[in-house]
């Protein structure tokens, strides 16, 4: 077509060209995405959708620390034209790759979900590919050990050890502070709903915590309250190197905190808030510990008060949509605290708690070979007893709950409160009660 001697471009092509030009211009002028994380203030602080950037709340900081210690994302599989997959060196799964994969429903995530980067079939079996590369194995194993200091595995290790060989005076105070701090920390996660670092750029190694929110870090809280409670409870009552004790406590806390960054499960701000919150709670609780401990040991109705208070807190726990990922851990913690404190109450009624008014005192030194062997045997007995009681109680309760509520027990029904509360609370109540009653009775009979 011509008009006044000049060709006229068809209208549809002109519109298309205009759209194309505008689109490319928008893409070119679009500012690059900021690497630091954005968050939205929780609704409990006022209904607001305004995004705010916080210091120490940056996923790139966590990613840089991971790279410093030799942790990198695994190379991404690239599918070639012949249908075979290959790996590209030095690349990681970006948002486009993550979007095409199956992503679990996550509470504590901002950005692309950290799925396990798909899976492949090998010889007829499904194999999960490795989604990270640890170039420095020493750091990997050190921080993996540090991460276990706040897990359930560590609880199964420390409580039999405390029942067999550690100071009961310090253990009771640690258990009280542990229960209070952990309940506040776990409930705060559900109230705040602040996410964990996104993947990418962070490589997240603990997939089982994806359903939990991140603020505050309860690992940091446990890593602070346990060593410093034992340190404070023994400071003026036992003879040992206070400098060495303070150094060990600080090293314990730092190891746990750095392990959470290395694992890619928390921002720096999560850890700072966790440690600070624990220190504040300890300062408020510590002056009342002697009064609380004396009531638990001596009052005739103390077990009723302990159990009823714990059950009430479990029922009132703030959960997301009725089923929270942190609620199960909270019920487990409250059941453990109830079992330990009720066990000490029973031992006091039996005349087996010599440190009601004050700790026994004495010098803390490295044991000889004979004493170390006895300590190891006592710990082994307590550990075996804990495993046997746990398996037996768990099996009986699952059968009883299925009959009482006429429901099938599976992974879905276990998350219901009327199943989860008796199943978890009673299991760990019975477990820790037997551990702190049977073990001391046996050791007293044997004279060890």
Automatic annotation (TrEMBL):
MF terms (GO), sorted A to Z: sphingosine-1-phosphate phosphatase activity
Protein topology in the membrane: Multi-pass membrane protein
Coiled coil: none
Entry keyword annotation includes Nucleotide-binding: no
InterPro entries: PAP2/HPO, PAP2/HPO_sf
Keyword match RNA-binding: no
Biased composition (Polar residues): 82-101
Residue intervals passing through the bilayer: 138-163, 175-192, 213-232, 244-262, 267-289, 301-319, 331-348, 360-377, 384-405, 425-444
Cellular compartments annotated: Endoplasmic reticulum membrane
Record-level GO BP terms: sphingosine metabolic process
Keywords, alphabetical: Endoplasmic reticulum, Hydrolase, Membrane, Transmembrane, Transmembrane helix
Region ranges (Disordered): 82-122
Gene Ontology cellular component list: endoplasmic reticulum membrane
CDD domains noted in UniProt: PAP2_SPPase1
All copies of domain Phosphatidic acid phosphatase type 2/haloperoxidase, residue ranges: 171-286
Superkingdom, natural source: Eukaryota
Short name of one Pfam family: PAP2
Gene3D superfamilies, alphabetized: Phosphatidic acid phosphatase type 2/haloperoxidase
Protein family membership: Belongs to the type 2 lipid phosphate phosphatase family.
Protein name (Swiss-Prot/TrEMBL): Sphingosine-1-phosphate phosphatase 2-like isoform X1
């Amino acid at each position: 077509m011509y008009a006044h001697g000049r060709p006229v471009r068809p209208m549809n092509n002109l519109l298309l060209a205009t759209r194309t030009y505008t689109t490319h211009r928008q893409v070119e002028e679009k500012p690059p995405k900021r690497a630091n994380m954005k968050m939205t203030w929780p609704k409990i602080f006022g209904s607001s959708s305004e995004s705010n950037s916080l210091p120490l709340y940056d996923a790139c900081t966590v990613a840089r620390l991971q790279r410093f210690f030799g942790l990198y994302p695994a190379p991404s599989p690239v599918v070639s034209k012949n249908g075979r997959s290959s790996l590209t060196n030095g690349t990681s799964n970006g948002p486009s790759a993550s979007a095409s994969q199956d992503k679990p429903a996550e509470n504590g995530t901002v950005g692309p979900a950290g799925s396990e980067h798909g899976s492949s079939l090998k010889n007829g079996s499904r194999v999960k590919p490795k989604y990270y590369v640890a170039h420095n194995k020493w750091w990997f194993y050190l921080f993996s050990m540090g991460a276990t200091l706040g897990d359930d595995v560590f609880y199964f290790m420390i409580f039999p050890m405390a029942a067999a060989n550690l100071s009961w005076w310090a253990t009771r105070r640690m258990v009280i502070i542990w229960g209070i701090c952990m309940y506040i920390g776990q409930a705060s996660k559900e109230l705040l709903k602040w996410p964990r670092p996104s993947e990418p750029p962070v490589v997240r190694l603990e997939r089982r915590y994806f359903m939990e929110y991140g603020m505050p870090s309860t690992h940091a809280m446990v890593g602070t309250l346990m060593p410093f409670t034992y340190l404070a409870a023994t400071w003026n009552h036992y003879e040992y190197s206070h400098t060495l004790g303070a150094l060990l406590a600080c090293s314990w806390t730092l190891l746990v905190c750095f392990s959470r960054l290395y694992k890619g499960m928390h921002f720096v701000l999560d850890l700072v808030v966790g440690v600070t919150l624990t220190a504040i709670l300890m300062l408020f609780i510590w002056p009342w510990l002697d009064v609380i401990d004396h009531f638990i040991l001596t009052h005739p109705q103390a077990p009723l008060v302990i159990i009823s208070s714990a059950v009430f807190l479990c029922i009132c726990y703030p959960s997301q949509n009725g089923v929270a990922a942190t609620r199960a851990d909270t019920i487990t913690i409250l059941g453990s605290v109830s079992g330990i404190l009720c066990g000490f109450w029973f031992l006091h009624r039996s005349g087996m708690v010599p440190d009601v008014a004050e700790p026994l005192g004495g010098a803390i030194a490295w044991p000889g070979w004979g004493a170390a062997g006895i300590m190891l045997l006592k710990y082994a007995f307590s550990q075996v007893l804990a495993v046997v009681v746990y398996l037996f109680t768990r099996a009986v309760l699952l059968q009883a709950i299925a009959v009482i509520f006429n429901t099938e027990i599976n992974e879905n029904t276990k998350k219901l409160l009327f199943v989860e509360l008796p199943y978890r609370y009673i299991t760990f109540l019975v477990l820790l009660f037997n551990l702190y009653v049977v073990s001391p009775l046996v050791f007293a009979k044997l004279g060890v």
